[in-house]
User: Which sequence fits this backbone?
C-alpha cells in the first residue's frame, strides 16, 4: 500500500459522491428487492462498502450517496453502518434519494443528472475537488494517489481506468490515451471495443471513477442540463465532451491499487452477473484469496449485527457439524451438516445430514435436513425444504430455479414457494 502522503492530503479538501441508484438487472432476482450496491458480499459486507471504505481509508471525510431504485435496504444499511462521520469534525455523510428536487416529474435521468440535482448540497460544502464513484464494484484503491495526479497534471477530469481483456470491455467506457496519459478518445460501451495499440487482445476500460475540480464539474453539469440532446450521463455525454473540448487524463488502477502482503494482483471485480457474483464470493474460500478481506491496514467498514459466535454441533458419522475451506459468519449454527468451499452470511442454519458444496448462502437462510446443495446462491431468508437437492440435475434445476449457462443456481424464497403449489 502506498504510504507517501503530503502534509495536507488533497483528500481532506475532496468530496466523494457515490452513484448507487442502479438495479443491476443482470443479477436477476438478487436485485428484485434491493439495489445492486446493497447486495451482500463476502460474509458480512454489502457491495457499496468497498467504495465507501476506500474513500474513508483514503482520508475523504465528505461523502454523499445518490440512491434511486428500491433504496430502502441500501438506505437502512447506510444509516446503520456509516453514521460515524460527524459534522463537528468537519465531516459529513449524506444519503441523497431521488426526490424530484428539480421538478415534480423528474427523477434521476442519468448518472450526471444524479449529481446535477444535488449541486446545491455539493457546493455548500465548498470542497475544491470531487471524486465520482460507482457503488457496485469490488476493489481496494487509494484515491489520494489519483487526486494527486489530477492536481499535478492540471486535468479538467481524471478518469480511473484498468486494462481488461478486449471483449470484456463491452460493458465499460473504453479509452485511447497518448504517451502522456491524456485521453484522446472515449467510447461508452462499444460492441467492438478498440484495442490498446500493440496489444490486440486488451482494452483500456473506464472504472467509472472521475476526479474533477468541483467548480469545473458544476459548470459542465449546468451546460449539459441545458442541452436537450444530452442523455445526462457521464460516460455518454460529460466525459466525451471534455475529451473533445478540454483536458482529460487517465489514471491507471495499478498505480493506486491497495495490496496487502498476501495480494499479488490488482484485484477489481464487476460482480454484476450471477456467475461473477458467485465466483467472487467462492474465491474468498481459497487458502490465499486474491482479495484479502483480512487486511487490517485497509479495513472494509460496514454495519455488523451484534451476534453470538458461529457454532458447530454433533459428532457422529454422517451427522457432524463441519466446514472445510469455508467462511462462516456470526450466529450461524452448523447442526450436523457439512460445508465445503462455501460462504455463509450471518444467521444461517444448516440442519443435520445436509451438505453444501460451493454454495453462497445469504443471511438467515435455513437448510433443511438431508438437503444437498452445490454451486448455488441462496437469497436471504430462503427456507430449503428437507431432502431438497440443488445443483445435481441440470434439467430439474432449470425448471425450478434461475440456472445460469455455467450451471450456477440462484434460489429465492418465491421460487421455493412456487414448488408447493
Assistant:
Amino acid at each position: 500500500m502506498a504510504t507517501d502522503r503530503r502534509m495536507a492530503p488533497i483528500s481532506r479538501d475532496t468530496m466523494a459522491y457515490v452513484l448507487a441508484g442502479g438495479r443491476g438487472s443482470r443479477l436477476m432476482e438478487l436485485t428484485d428487492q434491493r439495489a445492486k450496491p446493497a447486495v451482500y458480499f463476502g460474509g458480512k459486507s454489502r457491495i457499496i462498502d468497498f467504495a465507501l471504505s476506500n474513500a474513508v481509508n483514503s482520508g475523504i471525510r465528505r461523502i454523499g450517496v445518490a440512491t434511486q431504485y428500491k433504496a430502502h435496504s441500501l438506505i437502512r444499511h447506510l444509516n446503520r453502518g456509516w453514521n460515524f462521520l460527524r459534522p463537528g469534525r468537519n465531516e459529513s455523510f449524506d444519503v441523497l434519494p431521488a426526490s424530484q428536487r428539480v421538478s415534480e416529474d423528474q427523477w434521476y435521468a442519468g448518472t450526471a443528472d444524479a449529481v446535477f440535482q444535488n449541486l446545491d448540497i455539493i457546493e455548500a460544502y465548498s470542497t475544491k475537488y470531487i471524486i465520482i464513484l460507482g457503488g457496485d464494484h469490488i476493489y481496494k484503491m487509494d484515491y489520494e494517489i489519483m487526486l494527486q495526479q489530477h492536481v499535478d497534471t492540471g486535468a479538467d477530469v481524471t478518469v480511473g481506468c484498468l486494462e481488461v481483456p478486449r471483449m470484456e470491455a463491452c460493458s465499460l467506457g473504453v479509452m485511447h490515451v497518448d504517451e502522456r496519459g491524456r485521453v484522446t478518445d472515449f467510447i461508452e460501451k462499444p460492441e467492438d471495443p478498440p484495442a490498446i495499440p500493440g496489444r490486440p487482445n486488451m482494452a483500456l476500460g473506464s472504472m467509472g471513477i472521475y476526479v474533477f475540480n468541483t467548480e469545473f464539474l458544476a459548470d459542465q453539469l449546468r451546460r449539459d442540463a441545458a442541452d436537450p440532446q444530452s442523455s445526462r450521463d457521464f460516460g455518454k455525454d460529460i466525459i466525451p465532451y471534455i475529451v473533445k473540448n478540454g483536458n482529460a487524463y487517465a489514471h491507471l488502477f495499478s498505480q493506486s491499487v491497495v495490496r496487502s502482503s498476501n495480494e499479488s494482483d490488482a484485484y477489481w471485480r464487476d460482480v454484476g452477473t450471477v456467475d461473477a457474483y458467485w465466483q467472487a464470493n467462492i474465491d474468498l474460500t481459497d487458502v490465499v484469496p486474491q482479495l484479502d478481506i483480512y487486511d487490517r491496514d485497509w479495513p472494509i467498514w460496514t454495519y455488523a449485527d451484534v451476534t453470538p459466535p458461529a457454532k458447530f454441533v454433533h459428532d457422529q458419522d454422517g451427522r457432524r457439524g463441519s466446514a472445510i475451506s469455508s467462511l462462516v459468519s456470526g450466529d450461524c449454527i452448523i447442526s450436523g451438516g457439512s460445508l465445503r468451499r462455501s460462504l455463509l452470511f450471518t444467521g444461517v442454519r444448516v440442519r443435520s445430514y445436509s451438505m453444501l458444496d460451493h454454495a453462497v448462502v445469504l443471511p438467515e437462510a435455513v437448510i433443511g435436513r438431508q438437503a444437498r446443495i452445490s454451486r448455488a446462491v441462496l437469497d436471504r431468508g430462503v427456507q430449503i425444504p428437507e431432502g431438497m437437492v440443488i445443483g445435481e440435475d441440470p434439467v430439474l434445476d432449470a425448471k425450478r430455479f434461475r440456472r445460469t449457462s455455467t450451471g450456477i443456481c440462484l434460489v429465492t424464497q418465491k421460487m421455493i414457494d412456487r414448488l408447493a403449489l
User: Anything to note?
Assistant: The longest helix spans residues 214-225. The CA atoms of residues 368 and 386 lie 4 Å apart. DSSP finds ten helices and 29 strands in the chain. The domain at 311-418 is CATH 2.160.10.10 (UDP N-Acetylglucosamine Acyltransferase; domain 1).
